C-alpha cells in the first residue's frame, strides 16, 4: 500500500509556526487523533493530531522548523482499510490537511479540559521500542500542549509523572508537585549523613536517660551547623608570657583596690583586637550566596563561658577602645550574668571573633570550632614553664599554648600563621600594643 502525506492543517492564518515537539518517530504505529507534532505560533501552542491510522514511514519536520498550513509533516503507511476517499480523489495534500482537523475544523489548541479519551497506545509502546523519555514514549502520556510545554521548560519527563486529571490526564499541578517532590528528595539526599544507630545500651549495664536542656540543644545545633559548613583548619603556636605574667601579678594590689581580678583574658582580648585590626581578613563574615565578604569596622569579641547549664558566649563590644581594667570588669559582669542565665540576647550578638580560654582548667591544646558566621576563634590552653634556648643557654619561660581555628574559605594558612605570630609577640611584650 502506498504511503500518504500528512500535512500541516489550517493554522488559522497565513503566518508560520515553530515545531516545538515531535510526538512520533518513524516506525511508530499511529491511530487517528494521536498527537503528531506540537507547533507554537505567536498566538497559540497547537497540538496537531493524526488524521489517519497507520505506520509512520518518515517524519518530514524537525524541532525548530518553521511550518505553515499545508507543509508536509510526515508520510504514513496507512493501516489496512485506512485509505481515505479524499486522499484517493485529490492526491492527498489538501484533503490530508483538512482531515487532520477534528470535527470543529481546528487543530487542538492549548487543550483546555479533558479530551474524551486518552490517546490509544500505539504499537511501539507495546513492543518496547522506545527509550525512556523518548518523544514517542512521552507522546503516550495524556497531556495537553500547555502542560507539555511547561514540562519541557522544567525538564520533566512526562512519562515519569502521574496525572491527577480526569482519566489520568496530566495537569500543570501534577508537574509542579513532581518538581517539588524531586527537590525535596534532592535536599534530603544532600542533607543526609550516615545514620548513627544507637545500640541498646541497657544490654551492657544500667542506664538512665535525661532530657537535653534548651541551651544544650541550641549549642549542639550551632556546633553541628558550623562543623558541617566550615572547612576548619587549626593553627598552633605558643606565646611567651613570662613578662606578661610578672606585670599582671604586679597589678594584684591595684586590682584588689578596684575590686577586680585581672586574669589573662583581658590581655588576650586586647591582643586579639590588635591582630584583627592588623589582619582584617579575620574580621569578616562570608556571604556565600552573594559571593561577598562583609568587613566589619568594629571589634566585638565573644568570650566562651563555661556555665553549669552549658556553654554561653557573651560578647564584649569595642574591645579595641577599652583598657584592661574596663575589660576585666566587663568580663566579670558578663561571666556572672552567663552563669546566672541572665544574659540578654543583645549581649550575645554581634561578635566578630571568639576567644575560648580553657587555661584555668588545663590542657595543652585543642581545636575549637569556629562560631559561624565569624571566621576565627582563638583557643587558649594552660600555660606551662618550659626550658627555652636563648642562644646561649636554656632558661625557664612561661609558655601559653594558642590554637587558632579558622574558616579556610575566608582565611589562608599563611595569614593564620601571621595572626598567631602577632598575637604571640603582643603577649610576649604587651608594650607593642601601644605602638
Ligand atoms: N594558664 C594558666 N592559668 C590560667 C590560664 C592559663 N591560660 N587562664 C586562667 N588561668 C588561671 C587564672 O589565672 C585563675 O587562677 P587564680 O585563681 O589563681 O588567679 C584560674 O586559672 C581561673 O581563671 P578563671 O577561669 O576564673 O578566669 P579567666 O579570666 O581565666 O577565664 C572564663 C574566664 C569566663 C573564660 C573562664 O572562666 C571560662 O569559663 N572558661 C571556659 C571556656 C570554655 O568553656 N571554653 C570551651 C568552649 S567550646 O569548646
From TrEMBL:
<dbReference type="Pfam" id="PF00198">
    <property type="entry name" value="2-oxoacid_dh"/>
</dbReference>
<dbReference type="InterPro" id="IPR004167">
    <property type="entry name" value="PSBD"/>
</dbReference>
<dbReference type="InterPro" id="IPR001078">
    <property type="entry name" value="2-oxoacid_DH_actylTfrase"/>
</dbReference>
<keyword id="KW-0808">Transferase</keyword>
<feature type="region of interest" description="Disordered">
    <location>
        <begin position="81"/>
        <end position="139"/>
    </location>
</feature>
<comment type="similarity">
    <text>Belongs to the 2-oxoacid dehydrogenase family.</text>
</comment>
<dbReference type="InterPro" id="IPR023213">
    <property type="entry name" value="CAT-like_dom_sf"/>
</dbReference>
<keyword id="KW-0450">Lipoyl</keyword>
<feature type="compositionally biased region" description="Polar residues">
    <location>
        <begin position="90"/>
        <end position="109"/>
    </location>
</feature>
<dbReference type="InterPro" id="IPR050743">
    <property type="entry name" value="2-oxoacid_DH_E2_comp"/>
</dbReference>
<dbReference type="InterPro" id="IPR003016">
    <property type="entry name" value="2-oxoA_DH_lipoyl-BS"/>
</dbReference>
<comment type="function">
    <text>The pyruvate dehydrogenase complex catalyzes the overall conversion of pyruvate to acetyl-CoA and CO(2). It contains multiple copies of three enzymatic components: pyruvate dehydrogenase (E1), dihydrolipoamide acetyltransferase (E2) and lipoamide dehydrogenase (E3).</text>
</comment>
<protein>
    <recommendedName>
        <fullName>Dihydrolipoamide acetyltransferase component of pyruvate dehydrogenase complex</fullName>
        <ecNumber>2.3.1.-</ecNumber>
    </recommendedName>
</protein>
<dbReference type="InterPro" id="IPR011053">
    <property type="entry name" value="Single_hybrid_motif"/>
</dbReference>
<keyword id="KW-0012">Acyltransferase</keyword>
<feature type="domain" description="Lipoyl-binding">
    <location>
        <begin position="3"/>
        <end position="77"/>
    </location>
</feature>
<dbReference type="Pfam" id="PF02817">
    <property type="entry name" value="E3_binding"/>
</dbReference>
<dbReference type="InterPro" id="IPR000089">
    <property type="entry name" value="Biotin_lipoyl"/>
</dbReference>
<dbReference type="InterPro" id="IPR036625">
    <property type="entry name" value="E3-bd_dom_sf"/>
</dbReference>
<comment type="subunit">
    <text>Forms a 24-polypeptide structural core with octahedral symmetry.</text>
</comment>
<feature type="domain" description="Peripheral subunit-binding (PSBD)">
    <location>
        <begin position="142"/>
        <end position="179"/>
    </location>
</feature>
<dbReference type="Pfam" id="PF00364">
    <property type="entry name" value="Biotin_lipoyl"/>
</dbReference>
